[in-house]
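Appendix C: a fully annotated inverse folding record. The material below is reproduced so that readers can follow the format used throughout the book. The structure is listed first as C-alpha coordinates, followed by the designed sequence.
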Protein backbone atom coordinates (compact mmCIF):
# COMPACT_ATOMS: atom_id res chain seq x y z
CA UNK A 1 0.00 0.00 0.00
CA UNK A 2 2.91 2.37 0.72
CA UNK A 3 4.23 1.88 -2.81
CA UNK A 4 0.84 2.69 -4.35
CA UNK A 5 0.56 5.79 -2.16
CA UNK A 6 4.06 6.91 -3.14
CA UNK A 7 3.29 6.48 -6.86
CA UNK A 8 0.02 8.41 -6.53
CA UNK A 9 1.80 11.17 -4.61
CA UNK A 10 4.59 11.36 -7.20
CA UNK A 11 2.03 11.77 -9.97
CA UNK A 12 0.52 14.69 -8.13
CA UNK A 13 3.84 16.56 -7.90
CA UNK A 14 4.20 19.10 -10.74
CA UNK A 15 6.72 17.95 -13.34
CA UNK A 16 6.45 14.25 -12.51
CA UNK A 17 3.48 13.23 -14.64
CA UNK A 18 4.16 12.54 -18.31
CA UNK A 19 2.93 14.73 -21.11
CA UNK A 20 2.84 13.96 -24.82
CA UNK A 21 4.22 17.45 -25.50
CA UNK A 22 6.90 19.51 -23.75
CA UNK A 23 6.43 22.96 -22.28
CA UNK A 24 7.55 25.90 -24.42
CA UNK A 25 7.59 25.35 -28.18
CA UNK A 26 6.42 21.72 -28.50
CA UNK A 27 7.25 21.46 -32.19
CA UNK A 28 10.82 22.69 -31.79
CA UNK A 29 11.50 20.50 -28.75
CA UNK A 30 10.05 17.40 -30.41
CA UNK A 31 12.15 18.09 -33.52
CA UNK A 32 15.27 18.47 -31.37
CA UNK A 33 14.58 15.20 -29.51
CA UNK A 34 13.93 13.28 -32.74
CA UNK A 35 17.17 14.68 -34.19
CA UNK A 36 19.08 13.60 -31.06
CA UNK A 37 17.61 10.09 -31.29
CA UNK A 38 18.47 9.83 -34.99
CA UNK A 39 21.99 11.18 -34.44
CA UNK A 40 22.65 8.61 -31.71
CA UNK A 41 22.13 5.78 -34.24
CA UNK A 42 23.03 7.49 -37.54
CA UNK A 43 26.20 9.23 -36.32
CA UNK A 44 28.24 7.20 -38.80
CA UNK A 45 26.70 8.62 -41.98
CA UNK A 46 28.32 9.84 -44.19
CA UNK A 47 31.47 9.25 -42.13
CA UNK A 48 32.21 7.76 -38.73
CA UNK A 49 32.03 10.93 -36.66
CA UNK A 50 33.27 10.60 -33.09
CA UNK A 51 31.94 14.09 -32.43
CA UNK A 52 28.37 13.08 -33.39
CA UNK A 53 28.57 9.72 -31.60
CA UNK A 54 30.06 10.93 -28.33
CA UNK A 55 28.09 14.18 -28.42
CA UNK A 56 24.82 12.25 -28.46
CA UNK A 57 25.24 10.63 -25.01
CA UNK A 58 25.73 11.76 -21.41
CA UNK A 59 29.40 12.03 -20.43
CA UNK A 60 29.31 10.60 -16.93
CA UNK A 61 29.11 7.35 -14.99
CA UNK A 62 25.29 7.23 -14.99
CA UNK A 63 24.95 6.65 -18.75
CA UNK A 64 23.58 3.14 -19.35
CA UNK A 65 22.91 0.90 -22.35
CA UNK A 66 21.49 -2.63 -22.61
CA UNK A 67 22.38 -4.40 -25.86
CA UNK A 68 20.50 -7.45 -27.24
CA UNK A 69 23.31 -9.75 -26.09
CA UNK A 70 24.21 -10.34 -22.45
CA UNK A 71 27.91 -9.46 -22.85
CA UNK A 72 27.67 -5.87 -24.03
CA UNK A 73 25.87 -4.02 -21.23
CA UNK A 74 27.47 -0.58 -20.93
CA UNK A 75 27.69 1.36 -17.66
CA UNK A 76 29.06 4.87 -17.92
CA UNK A 77 30.52 7.01 -20.66
CA UNK A 78 34.03 5.55 -20.31
CA UNK A 79 32.72 2.03 -21.03
CA UNK A 80 30.68 3.40 -23.94
CA UNK A 81 33.74 5.11 -25.45
CA UNK A 82 35.90 1.97 -24.98
CA UNK A 83 33.21 -0.24 -26.57
CA UNK A 84 32.75 2.21 -29.45
CA UNK A 85 36.47 2.36 -30.19
CA UNK A 86 36.74 -1.47 -30.18
CA UNK A 87 33.62 -2.07 -32.26
CA UNK A 88 32.26 0.91 -34.18
CA UNK A 89 35.49 2.71 -35.02
CA UNK A 90 37.47 -0.25 -36.40
CA UNK A 91 37.71 -0.71 -40.17
CA UNK A 92 35.94 -4.10 -39.95
CA UNK A 93 32.71 -2.30 -38.93
CA UNK A 94 31.02 -0.78 -41.97
CA UNK A 95 27.52 0.57 -41.18
CA UNK A 96 25.34 0.78 -44.30
CA UNK A 97 21.99 2.13 -43.10
CA UNK A 98 19.38 2.56 -40.39
CA UNK A 99 15.64 3.01 -40.36
CA UNK A 100 13.53 4.07 -37.38
CA UNK A 101 9.84 3.15 -37.42
CA UNK A 102 6.89 3.73 -35.11
CA UNK A 103 8.74 6.36 -33.09
CA UNK A 104 6.86 7.43 -29.96
CA UNK A 105 8.20 10.31 -27.85
CA UNK A 106 6.78 11.41 -24.49
CA UNK A 107 7.95 14.42 -22.46
CA UNK A 108 7.97 15.03 -18.73
CA UNK A 109 5.82 17.95 -17.66
CA UNK A 110 8.95 19.94 -16.94
CA UNK A 111 9.92 19.50 -20.59
CA UNK A 112 13.52 18.60 -19.69
CA UNK A 113 13.19 14.79 -19.95
CA UNK A 114 11.86 12.72 -22.83
CA UNK A 115 11.54 8.99 -23.29
CA UNK A 116 10.98 7.12 -26.53
CA UNK A 117 10.26 3.77 -28.09
CA UNK A 118 10.53 2.61 -31.70
CA UNK A 119 11.43 -0.25 -33.98
CA UNK A 120 14.88 -0.12 -35.52
CA UNK A 121 16.39 -1.73 -38.59
CA UNK A 122 20.17 -1.25 -38.66
CA UNK A 123 22.49 -2.96 -41.12
CA UNK A 124 26.03 -3.10 -42.39
CA UNK A 125 29.04 -5.37 -42.69
CA UNK A 126 31.63 -6.74 -40.29
CA UNK A 127 34.79 -7.76 -42.13
CA UNK A 128 32.70 -8.15 -45.29
CA UNK A 129 30.01 -10.30 -43.64
CA UNK A 130 26.55 -8.68 -43.61
CA UNK A 131 24.82 -8.01 -40.29
CA UNK A 132 21.26 -6.89 -39.63
CA UNK A 133 19.17 -5.77 -36.71
CA UNK A 134 15.60 -6.17 -37.96
CA UNK A 135 12.59 -4.99 -35.94
CA UNK A 136 14.85 -4.36 -32.95
CA UNK A 137 12.96 -2.74 -30.11
CA UNK A 138 14.74 0.42 -29.00
CA UNK A 139 13.80 2.50 -25.99
CA UNK A 140 15.63 5.32 -24.30
CA UNK A 141 15.60 8.37 -22.08
CA UNK A 142 17.00 11.77 -23.00
CA UNK A 143 17.51 14.87 -20.88
CA UNK A 144 17.96 18.45 -21.95
CA UNK A 145 21.25 19.59 -20.43
CA UNK A 146 22.73 23.00 -21.17
CA UNK A 147 20.27 23.42 -24.04
CA UNK A 148 21.10 20.07 -25.70
CA UNK A 149 19.18 16.78 -25.68
CA UNK A 150 21.50 13.89 -24.74
CA UNK A 151 20.88 10.18 -24.37
CA UNK A 152 20.88 9.11 -20.72
CA UNK A 153 19.89 5.49 -21.18
CA UNK A 154 19.15 3.09 -24.06
CA UNK A 155 17.82 -0.42 -24.33
CA UNK A 156 17.89 -2.58 -27.45
CA UNK A 157 16.09 -5.93 -27.54
CA UNK A 158 14.57 -8.43 -29.93
CA UNK A 159 11.14 -9.97 -29.52
CA UNK A 160 11.84 -13.50 -28.29
CA UNK A 161 8.90 -15.04 -30.17
CA UNK A 162 10.07 -13.55 -33.47
CA UNK A 163 13.65 -14.74 -32.91
CA UNK A 164 12.42 -18.24 -32.00
CA UNK A 165 10.20 -18.37 -35.10
CA UNK A 166 13.13 -17.38 -37.33
CA UNK A 167 15.42 -20.01 -35.79
CA UNK A 168 12.77 -22.73 -36.20
CA UNK A 169 12.25 -21.66 -39.83
CA UNK A 170 15.98 -21.93 -40.49
CA UNK A 171 16.19 -25.32 -38.78
CA UNK A 172 13.30 -26.64 -40.86
CA UNK A 173 14.91 -25.32 -44.03
CA UNK A 174 18.19 -27.04 -43.10
CA UNK A 175 20.22 -23.83 -42.84
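Designed amino acids, in order:
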Amino acid sequence: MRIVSAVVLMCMIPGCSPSPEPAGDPGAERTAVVKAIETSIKWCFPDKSRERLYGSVLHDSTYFMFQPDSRSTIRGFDEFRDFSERVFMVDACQPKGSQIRDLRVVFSRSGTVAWFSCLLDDWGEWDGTPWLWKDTRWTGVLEKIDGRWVMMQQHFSNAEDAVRAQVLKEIEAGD
